[in-house]
Amino acid sequence: MNGPYKPGTPCWIDLMVPDQQAALDFYCDLLGWQGEVGPAETGGYSVCTLKGRPVAGIMKASNPDGTVPDPMPPTVWTTHLSTDSVDAALKSVTDAGGSVMMGPMDVMDLGRMAVLADPTGAVVGLWQPGTFDGAGIVNEHGALIWNELSTGDTAAASAFYSAVLPVTTATTEIPGAEGYIEFKVDGRAVAGMMDLSALLPGTPPNWLPYFQVDDADEIQAAATRAGGTVLAPAFDMAVGRIAVLADPQGGVFAVITAKAPEQPA
User: Fold this and answer.
1) Looking at CB atoms within 10 Å, which of 5, 125, 136, 265 has the fewest?
2) How many contiguous H segments (helices) and E segments (strands) does the chain have?
3) What's the predicted TM-score (pTM) here?
């Protein structure tokens, strides 16, 4: 990726964990990233890289004053959606039924951010790029390839995101994925949405990151050896072979060995 993401497109993901170094070790070994605890001025935030380009952030869970949270928040990956103006987008959030959880705030000269919850309870970030656009490499082994919202009310979520960002929604035409909804920017699918009823009972609304990998079964086995958990063993879909995993601290993510799109005859 060179240059900013179009508004409404997932542009970055980051993980908040109790043990930052353990998370760095897990993901760097599993996906081939490079990363280390960041400088004190950024709260130790680590920007992990692949082939020298940023792919994801990992940070230690802490209160704004640097103290350890009690109780500790759940370990989760947060998807950040690109926007031309965080402040303008936030003006639409409450009117559209969402709530602002954090922000807006400047991150040095890198950009401006906020974190919000949509009307169905899923948490998502907004990112207005400054000198940092987001992920510098995607759709390759070890890099982000897809982001997916699971929600109990797809209609409410569709209305919300379309009110806050320049996105539209439409039911996919992919065989075998009937009812799956795509978020589109300028007619191009940039993220997906599915109903929570397809997942384990008790699963909260959430945004799930997918990483492209050369062999989903191999990554599933490696994650298990490293102390991770298999939530959905590798299975085949029209788009590729997918496994849903959790890291040793509970952060949920998916891996996919994606099939290349069929070319017209």
Assistant:
1) 265
2) 4, 15
3) 0.94
